[in-house]
Amino acid sequence: MTIPIDAHAAPAELPIVGQPRERCDALRNRRRILAAAREIVVAHGAEGLSMNVLAAAAGVGKGTIFRRFGDRDGLLHALLHDDTISLQNAFLSGPPPLGPGAPAPARLEAFVVALIRFEAAHVELLLAAEQGHVGADPPAVSSFRMHLLSLLEQIDPSLDAMLLAELILNSISARVIRRWNRVPGGSTAALERAAVALLRGITGPR
Q1: Contacts of 103 (CB under 8 A, 6+ apart)
Q2: What would the pLDDT profile of 134-153 be if each residue is shown by its tens digit?
């Protein structure tokens, strides 16, 4: 890992011998812990993700996990972080129709489909994160809501964008997705089609 050096930085702020190696070791530990955590969630769900089990699976001390992530909520946030950023980058600066360049109705439909797929892929983590944010939204949900509000206001400023955004998020929440996937014949693809059909009342001709 290359560390940029600011020529105007004070000597105490410059990298010291050995520090890059320590940072690389910390990065490897972080990746090992997160990889082990993902395997546990896939095999046993987020409920099976305890610090003791994770420490044994990752081959690190439990104290290392606490130092890296603070607590279990911090660990869950870290597991969601990279994929959340990828989705945000896709709708903020990626190619259309999810990203800029497409009409707002097309972007809204593409975003809802992308959000369903994101939540289906992380359903157990999202449900666990909800439990850790009782009375408040996980950070990812707040950013998704803001994007929905922006698109809805572009489509029709007379709409109650705040209420519609809540209805959309609630209708495709991780809880709904998990329940639907447990229904015989239920599938993420079917949920995507149903969500787009409902959106056509907003994205269709005004």
Answers
A1: none
A2: 445 656 678 899 999 999 99
